[in-house]
Amino acid sequence: MFFCSPFKLKKKGIMGMNERNSRYIGRYNPRRLYPLVDNKLKTKIIARDANVTTPALLGVITMQAEVETVEQFITNTPGFVIKPAKGSGGKGILVVTKVKNGRYYKSNGNEESLSEIKRHVTDILAGLFSLGGSADVAVIEGLIQFDSAFDGFSFEGVPDVRVIVFKGFPVMAMMRLSTAASDGKANLHQGAVGVGIDIATGKAINAVQFDLPVERHPDTDKELKLLVVPSWERLIYLAASCYEMTGMGYLGTDMVLDRDIGPMLLELNARPGLAIQIANGTGILPRLKLVESLKDADKMTVEERVAFSKKHFAETPLIETQ
Amino acid sequence: MNARIFFFTLVAGLFLLGVFQTVQRHLAFDIPWMPGETRSVWNIDAKIEFEATGKPVLASLSTPNSQAGYTQISQNAASPGYGLSFLYEDNKPQAQWTIRQATGPQTLYYNIQLLVDSESVDQPITKMPELFDPEYGAAGLAAGTDIIKDAFKTSADAFSFTREILKQLNAEQPNQSIRLVLASKNSKTNILVGLLNEAKIPTKKVGALVLEDGRRRQHLQPLIEVFQEKNGKIESRLFDASSLQEVARKDLLLWDQSGKALLELTGGVNSKVSFSMIQQDQPALAAILQKNDNEHLFNFSIHSLPIEDQSLFKGILMIPLGVLIVVMMRVLIGLKTSGTFMPVLIAMAFIQTSLITGIVGFVMLVAVGLFIRSYLSHLNLLLVSRISTVIIMVILLIAMFGVLSYKLGLTEGLKITFFPMIILSWTIERMSVLWEEEGAKEVFKQGGGSLIVAVFAYFVMSNDVTRHLMFNFIGLQFVVMALVLLLGSYTGYRLLELRRFKPLVDKG
What is the nearest CA distance from B502 to chain A, expressed in angstroms? Predict the structure, then answer.
């Protein structure tokens, strides 16, 4: 059979795109809050106010005249990232991993000259990477030093953890590992590996690539079930705090782990995808329904919500039992 | 929950409104459900021949009214040199020819088209025809009184009285009085009219034409319409003087109901009127429209617009169906398209170009456009000027394809100009960005999706039946709207999700 029965899907609690759009995004995400999420600079500002850790903000360039001043933000750093505030799909992100004697090197070892960096900033300001080509600002962030826990799990890119936070409850999580196929990007539909993560423990449950189950990372051959996210407690606490911070009811939070600072919020997504269900091997609907059925959910503190999630959404990791 | 109830009431209301309006239009105006339906139309010619005497000529021909079973669609007349007018006085339509001077044999033609229409009814009779004095001699008068006396005894009303007289008139062995009456030079019809008048029963002579396909040189059959007032209502029946029963109206057209003469002619002699007829099958819609046009009804339909605007609406009214297809493809199937309603516009272009030419042209334009656009992305241009460049490029490409295909003798290729250029440019721009961001696979996915949806929309929008229905029944727009609203609240799975999430179900 090419298709499966919709009744079986329903029984497993799998959420479809139509249901996500009308029942959850349409109902819980007010349109006026979208700019907070779609603009990375705004996200950073509200995150700072809410004491949610984000990568260090080195500087912002908002006008063409300021482009010449970019050097002052980046000369004395170990590495930095320049990204458009309203970029989408990882476009226009320049990562410099090494700064030495006023020369800049990308992760593949190639040098990026200062004038090239300035042109990149100009492109960002012109809206070259932004949705609809609207004018944008360039955000300069400190480089994240990846936690060694992920060595071998990711190919060339930033491994991040996507946690779906519904009304402040972390309901489902997945690690996104870039691959050669995904060109270093962490988007599942581009070929990144998605690893379902147990909400209670931070351990791997199940892994998929291109919506099909995989056991090992296609590039590094590392066994994916061995993956454990360190500082898990702190990570889902931060993710859960994003609810108060934005007011968005149905939110995808992208977290990264820094070797020194620990979990940080990288960006938010008001329309998180459905692939997380495949990565976890289970439907998200029963969890959403359970949270919706709570009467005094709004009065619960972040700690209480995280505790509730860990209790109810824990899962016996499937890979370990196989 | 209340909002939910309101929503479904709204949807049901729109749906019912649409269905009601549609059915009402079908019933009231007889607009057929199918485009191919045909209706019979009788095309009847009356030919008038006479010899003009060199004086001013005035010829008035009684013409038929719309009546039970037949609706007049059009009439016209051919008569070189004559002034022509159609008169309608006192419920008696006439065609009148006039000329200052004419000599020798003259021929005038009158043509009428009648739609076979079971819903057409006779015009109500408002007043009885007047009685007149019969014109036969004293002997006949005495005999007539006898006949009337006999018939009166064995009858109950005007109609049965008429039948009784007919029995006597047509008896195989007529009695003394009948023989006497028949001996006069009058026709049976005139005798009957005279007798009925004598008995104070109003009558009218009617000239009827028996309709039979392909008949020529026909003459009117003289019939007698007998009137009777009953409970304040005037009724009438038709009788033929040479048969006993009243006349059935089937295939009978009452041509001359003036009660006077079929042709009134001054300035001519030896006049003769003959009829020929053919039955034609016309597309029902055209016939109905002509009919309604004549009726001057308040009729909320696109048909009341000038033809030029009608053809504009013919296209516009199909768009909702295309939109419905897009909504279905996205919400129920889950196909990705580049630009939400771009497929509808492409489908409309396909209607102009024909499908195969359209697809080939579209694919070629987009492919070449993408190729050139990939060069533009190296130039790091601003968006607006980039799009503008693409627009100019698309126009040049269209011109080039047009000229090239013309030179090669492929006139089909010229249809490429029907493509919406701005839309095409945006499509190329979007796909190009998509190519850079997501790779070629996604471009083919969305481009293919758009094309599939466009082809579906094309088939629905170019289908004769749907075109006929959407254009003639405005109410269907409400039905489409109700469906779109309903689809907007669908939260179930998309077809492609059943494929996507299949591994989850298979696992156990």
Answer: 6
